[in-house]
Amino acid sequence: MADLPNCPQCNSQYTYENGSLLVCPECGHEWTLEVESGNSEENNIVKDANGNILNDGDSITIIKNLKVKGSTSDLKIGTKVKNIRLIVDGDHNIDCKIDGFGAMKLKSEFVKKL
What are the Protein YjdM N-terminal domain coordinates in residue numbering (predicted)? Predict the structure, then answer.
């Protein structure tokens, strides 16, 4: 039997191969062995909605109206954000400060680089 790694999400030992993917039957997480082997340089690349690579300090604009939890107002399309910071925090990968809203975390799929 192949010596497969534990699930990176729930640490289950019952992982199995399904084609080129590794699958966890307990939580349903799927991943590739290349990601598990730690090709961290490739994992840290953050791209905007158009496929442009984002870097710390870039300026971006929001491409879709976004609802803000706990606020009655939304982030409007075209809102400009300066001096972003890239982070690794679940689904959100941009940390920034937006005028009129304050500190905010955004997903890169809803922004474009200026």
Answer: 4-32
CA distances from 47 to 11, 14, 19 (A): 29, 33, 27
Assigned CATH for 59-113: 2.30.30.40
Tokens of 66: 């976004």
End-to-end CA distance of the chain: 51
| Assigned token pair, 72 | 């009655």
Q: What angle do CA 59, 60, 65 make, to 5 degrees?
A: 150
Q: Tell me if the domain spanning 1-36 has CATH number 2.20.25.10.
A: yes
pLDDT, tens digit, for every residue of 64-92?
999 988 888 899 999 999 999 998 877 88
